[in-house]
Amino acid sequence: MPARLIFLGTTKQLKNSAGIVLQTNKTQLHIDPGAGAIARASQMGIDTKRTTALLVSHAHIAHCSDVNAAVAEMSYSGIDRKGILISNSTLIKGVGEEIPYLTMYHKNSLEKVIILNQDDKIAVEDVEIHPLKAIHQDPNAMGFRIMTSEFVLSYSGDTRYSSELISQYRDSDILLLNVAEPFGETSSSNLTSEDAVKLILQVMPKLTIITHFGEKMLKANPMNEAREIQRLTGIQTIAARDRLIITPTSYSELPQKKLNVFTLPKMMPMDEIKKEEIVPEEPNEIKELRGILQQQINQ
After folding, report:
1. What percent of the chain has pLDDT over 70?
2. Are 236 and 278 in contact (CB under 8 A)?
3. Which residues on adjacent β-strands are paired with residue 278?
4. Per residue in 109-156, pLDDT tens?
5. 7, 125, 164, 228: least surrounded by Cβ within 10 Å?
6. Per-residue H/E/C for 150-200
7. Residue-range domain boundaries for the chain
8. Three-class SS string for 285-296?
């Protein structure tokens, strides 16, 4: 079965922050299981009891509110001690006056609990996971670099822009960026569309996916923001939406190839998924735009 990237929830609002599932031949990873993660996964035909590992980027409720429920699913409510949780120390140990979000009961239900530190790397079945630096309110926030035999995906988690981030994203086939704010906005803790452009021009992935949209981004329309990001960078950019399924291996660096994207309408059976093709648009005056943006980055 080809790898699949499944978007359960794509906004910062709690009702739509259920996270992302990555399925490979041997592994099912649930990234940032926020509110409604288990219910939404069930609606989409995903067996959460088969999740291999949970990856939690930081201990904010939109990213981890369902982590204990997800552990209960993996371990049959603690009857079968299994599954792996990979996260930062805030979620597992707490920080300052914040108590750990993971309960002791659920911690003891897992086969392994791993706190990722900088320069660590973890092998889980057929994938390798590295932590990525993130600059956010949670001082231990991180992203994840997920390496499979077929592609490398770098997930930013929640972070503000910094030139420090660029080197760790290099050689990524897919950039999965939490872009909370649209063009024209600024943020001290999250990426904006303009920040995404800066990162993409430095990293030059084969594909960029933006997700985790804030209120202003939703009003601006994430699809329009993605189109403008693509126009400015020349890199195919997709705005994720709830129930979107992408097959990463169907994307090729050859221009004539197309990216296969599957949209799962509400409560539709898995065998009725419709396929649509997204053909990259040819950007206008792309070299000139890159030159201007590169000058801004270097200033």
Report:
1. 83
2. yes
3. 259
4. 999 999 999 889 999 999 999 999 999 988 999 999 999 999 999 999
5. 164
6. CCEEEECCCCCCCHHHHHHHCCCCEEEEEEEECCCCCCCCCEEHHHHHHHH
7. 4-298
8. CHHHHHHHHHHH
Query: Topology of domain 4-298, per CATH?
Result: Metallo-beta-lactamase; Chain A (3.60.15)
State both tokens at 69. 């429920």
Taking a C-beta distance cutoff of 8 angstroms, is the pair 9, 2 a contact? Answer: no
Query: What residue type is assigned to position 278 of the chain?
Result: I
Can you tell me which residue has the tokens 């419709």? 274
The end-to-end CA distance of the chain, in Å, is 46
* Sole residue written with tokens 């995903």: 46
Q: Over the stretch 59-86, which tens digit does the pLDDT of each residue have?
A: 888 899 999 999 999 999 889 999 999 9
Number of Cβ within a 10 Å radius of residue 4: 17
Considering the entire predicted model, what is its pTM?
Answer: 0.84
- CA pair distance 130, 140, nearest whole angstrom: 14
Distance CA 280, CA 118 (A): 36
Burial class (CB in 10 A: 0-12, 13-18, 19+), 193: buried
Compute the distance between CA of residue 135 and CA of residue 138 in angstroms, rounded to an integer. 8
Give, in order, the Cα–Cα distances in Å from 138 to each of 61, 89, 93, 202, 214: 11, 10, 13, 26, 18
